[in-house]
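quick one before i forget lol
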Amino acid sequence: MKKLLLTAIMIGSLNAEGISGLFSQGQKNFGFGIGSSSGYGTDYTVVNASINYFVQNNISMGVGYQGWFGGDPKINQISIPVTYYHPLNAQYHPYIGATYSHTFIEEPYEDYDVIAGRIGIAMTMGSNTYMTIGWVQEHRTKGDESSDDGYPQVSMGFVF
């Protein structure tokens, strides 16, 4: 259900220190994405926005919003991610993270929760550009039901 055709374009930190500055305490990252998905017999345009703050070097916490538009039922999701970036070297930063999400769905459907883990690598592509490639594994619970799903995640970032 959550297979996005186009994932996040992330606008990174507001300094020009390069990729290592992205992972420093006090840095803020803003992300935006648009894509498409289908569910409940309807095709949707999916828009997301997020903000992350580095509470310590290499550890970010954030909040995100995802809205599913153009179909019924109406779907909105709030998420809280935490990510650790391992400082392997100046070019490569492997990461591991966890996310809790709550999805609000219009009646007669039930809201549901997702606990997800993600793993991947952030790579410097130039002095002001980076890319992340990883895998997300989700565990979804809705009432007494639960399911698991996994999918690749790719994003591009620009530092300015």
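fyi Helices lie at 19-22.
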